[in-house]
């Protein structure tokens, strides 16, 4: 929702807040957390293929230190157009 409200697609918002800054709002006390973002994937199968083809995204997905995952796949109005967005948060709780 922060990306939608502030019209950005980055790991850090225009005010310098990162996704980890939002985790306390959902009462997730983590020891490690990571984020994968994807934009403009209209087919979930192609999205997964693209994430696994990217070294940094794949590193998060297969990281054995992560035990939890939250995925949002929906739409965001960004850059004057509505587009599909995927947000994947991976972590391990304390």
The CA-CA distance between the termini, in Å, is 26 Å
Could you give the count of β-strands?
3
Order the strands across the largest sheet as they lie in space.
1-3-2
Low-confidence stretches: none
Order of helices and strands: HEHHEE
Mean pLDDT: 92
Question: How much helical structure, as a percent, in the residues?
Answer: 10-25%
> What percent of residues are in strands?
35-45%
Describe the main β-sheet briefly.
Answer: 3 strands, antiparallel
Gross geometry: globular
Structural class of the helix and strand makeup?
A: alpha+beta
User: What is the C-alpha radius of gyration, as a whole number of Å?
Assistant: 13 Å
| Number of contiguous helices | 3
Tell me what the structure shows.
The longest helix is centred in the middle third of the chain and has 10 residues. The chain is built from three helices and three strands. A hairpin with a 2-residue loop joins β2 and β3. The protein is an alpha+beta fold and 94 residues long. The protein has a three-stranded antiparallel β-sheet, covered by helices on one side.
